[in-house]
Amino acid sequence: MSKRELRKILIANRGEIACRIIWTCKELGIRTVAVHSTADKDALHVRYADEAVCIGAPPSAQSYLNIPAIISAAEITNVDAIHPGYGFLAESETFAKVCEDCNIKFIGPKASVIAMMGDKVEARRTMKAAGVPILPGSPEPIESAEEAAKLAGEIGFPVIIKAAAGGGGRGMRIVRSEEDLAVNLETAQTEALAAFKNGAVYIERYIERPRHIEIQVLADEFGNCIHLGERECTIQRRHQKLLEEAPSPVITVEQRERMGEVAVKACKEIGYSSAGTFEFLLDEDGSFYFMEMNTRIQVEHPVTEMVTLADIVRNQIRIAEGEELGYTQDDVQIVGHAIECRINAEDPVKFTPSPGKITTFNIPGGPGVRVDTAVYPGYVVPPFYDSMIAKLIVHARTREAAIARMRRALEMMVVEGIKTTIPLHIKIMNDENFQKGNFSTKFMEEFQ
Ligand code: MV4
User: With a threshold of 0.85, does the pTM exceed it?
Assistant: First the structure.
């Protein structure tokens, strides 16, 4: 018997991740409450949940970001906990705090840890103190052009200016010489203030052709922590991930152990609990550096689930119930290779949104194929939210077999009525550099 059994959970999210969370709740015998905007009254998560509450108008600010409306729904339906999913309020310190104050368990780490990782300067300082390698850069926000010039002189050009309250690539400036520094600092501070209501920025050495590798961790409230290996997330466009894989085609067993060890040690030192992700930049010489920590479940978690057989949502729920992690690092084994393609309602060439009615929706099946989606034939993709309509995930014994499986699954996935990124993914599967595992974050810029 667990310390605080969660009998009923509200999912403060929509789309595929809301459905994904409900899958696990059903398997655990936990009742679910969906919340939805008026635009989502016919959404699948609403039908899957045991109960549903309308929380506001279509714009996210009035519904999925509306804390009073969500808390009211939680009170009315008498839930024990809230799962925030990803995006929306998943990394809101305020929301995590309000949940605690209302005696509703927030399924995630402590509010103070969310806040610490939300401040990228503080996250860098904390990680450095915990023995995680970070790039040479500023220990405090940069105030003046003189300060920036002095630091850049020490680090060497190129450098990158990032917003302390940023993340995910928004408001970054690459600076290649001293004469460009002052103006870029000014612009970065102005943009940061406009975008995040916080003008603080910091400087790091810029890595020209890195890979984006992240480590999945699970930590309980008793200081037990394990990692589930890495995900290769290098292939992105405009800071949006296109596809992810596990394991990375370039990470060795020793490197995985080293990155995992570092992440686990850091989690223990900061009192991390729940599922979390350490994002690293991997340099061409094999060195890796901390970039950010994500304190939520991530879009690409299924590739890790496929190669480890772990259910990450189940772990989040058990940890939130005050249970101890049921296994140790030795119990974790990476088996085979998994790839996830994000299917977006987008023009695959122009990358512009393509909302509208999906007339045909045929999903592939067969061995080693998983589809995470909230779409059904006749569904109308609303224009208000993220354009991802499905995640196609495959698992096979080798990377080569996984690519072949993904190619046939993409060809057998039929979506009509809107444009999707399926044709783009087929092209990537057929690309020689992708097949060789030979790519950096510049892959899409140099593609086709
Ligand atoms: C960097 C970098 C090179 N050097 N930092 C982009 C997302 C945000 N989390 C940080 N990002 C980067 N930070 C240093 N010091 C290159 C990027 C970057 C990137 C990183 C991962 C995946 C795709 C990317 C695309 C462009 C730039």
Answer: yes
